[in-house]
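TICKET: design request
STATUS: open
ATTACHED STRUCTURE:
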């Protein structure tokens, strides 16, 4: 009986597998001792165990990487949110400051207009007063 490894996760045991010369093998033709069968089984099972361990390690690495990426994304989102909050506060402050400046500017313009009107009135009164003196 020959043990054949086809690349899958299990060994295939087949009594009617053709030899290289095209003849089929049977238990009667089999010269293989039980020690050779055990050695062949070890040659097949060791790579499977190593493959399973590598797969397990790769899965654990992938899980750790995904967890790390999730934590980084959460930290990034938290930092990004804080920055956006600060930018919003700065924007609100700038808008408030601009409103105050506009209000002050309006107030100064109004005061300037009042002063100009006052000077015109004073100038008019001086003209009237000067005209009264001349008469």
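STATUS: resolved
RESOLUTION: sequence designed for all positions
ATTACHED SEQUENCE:
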């Amino acid at each position: 009986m020959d043990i054949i490894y086809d690349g899958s996760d299990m060994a295939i045991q087949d009594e009617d597998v053709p030899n290289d010369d095209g003849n089929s093998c049977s238990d009667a033709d089999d010269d293989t001792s039980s020690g050779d069968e055990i050695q062949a089984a070890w040659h097949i099972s060791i790579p499977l165990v190593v493959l399973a361990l590598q797969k397990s390690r790769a899965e654990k690495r992938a899980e750790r990487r995904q967890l790390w990426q999730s934590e980084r994304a959460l930290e990034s989102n938290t930092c990004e949110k804080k920055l956006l909050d600060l930018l919003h506060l700065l924007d609100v402050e700038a808008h408030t400051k601009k409103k105050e400046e506009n209000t002050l500017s309006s107030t100064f313009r109004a005061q300037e207009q009042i002063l100009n009107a006052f000077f015109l009135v004073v100038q008019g009164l001086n003209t009237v007063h000067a005209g009264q003196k001349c008469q």
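CLOSING REMARK: Residues 5 and 44 are 7 Å apart (CA to CA). Confidence is low (pLDDT under 50) at residues 10-17.
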